[in-house]
Amino acid sequence: MKIAVFGSGRGSNFEALLRAKIPNADFSLVISNKKDARILELGSENGIKTKAFKSSEFSEENENIVLDFLLENGIELIVLAGFLRKISATIIQKYSNKIINIHPALLPSFGGIGMYGKYIHEAVLKSGTQFSGPTVHFVNENYDEGPIILQETVPVLFEDSTDDLAKRVLEVEHRIFAKALDLVINGKFEIKGKRVKFC
Question: pLDDT tens for residues 44-101?
Fold first, then answer.
């Protein structure tokens, strides 16, 4: 399956996907909204075609620019690995249930606008909850509201700093992201409401 990976940062989750050597995963494109994003270098280092688009080219007004590029390259699945732009409705409709994202909290809690990076872990610590953990989900038109593919809990320790919690969650992210992608590519599944059932 030909996959485009979207990212805005260093690409640690993408690196974990590459290390996992997932059967039938053909990472064909790496796309970013930042021309100096480390994830683009990571793609180039692994012989993968890369492309940086201007942030404005991801907007609803220009959505066909990115979509046409995906279609021209035969992309079948989109993986969001730390991508900090909203995916346009046209792309979501074209790739319905073929866009997956990883979020460093247990959705539906701690999701939505403004919930990314350290802000998520700060909110988790402030809430007093005893558990956090990553969620892999399909992407729909609303931030962090698509059907959930996989989740795994991580304990929130009394002495945790934001960085401590982020590091512990990231370790699990790297593992379950690869597992979820493998299931989506190679498994049969059905979506029931907000949940994904693998057959």
Answer: 999 999 999 988 888 777 778 999 999 999 999 999 999 988 888 899 999 999 999 9
Catalytic residue (choose from 103, 121, 137, 174): 103
CA distance 119 to 122: 5
Go through 143-159 and write b for each residue having 16 or more CB atoms within 10 A of its CB, e for each that does not. bbbbbbbbbeebebeee
> Residue 149 is encoded by which pair of tokens?
């593919």
Q: Say if residues 32 and 40 touch (Cβ distance below 8 Å).
A: yes
- Give Cα 79 distance to the centre of its chain: 5
Angstrom distance (rounded) from CA 43 to CA 20: 15
* 121 annotated active-site: no
Domains defined along the chain, listed by start: 1-95 (3.40.50.170), 102-199 (3.40.50.170)
pTM of the model: 0.94
Could you tell me which of 171, 101, 100, 82 has the C-alpha nearest to residue 132?
A: 171
2 class by beta-carbon count within 10 Å (0-12 exposed, 13-18 middle, 19+ buried): middle
Quote the CA–CA distance of 57 and 79 in Å, as a whole number. 18
Q: Are the C-beta atoms of 89 and 141 separated by less than 8 Å?
A: yes
Reduce the DSSP state of residue 117 to 3 states and report it. coil
| Lookup result for tokens 């929130």 | 156
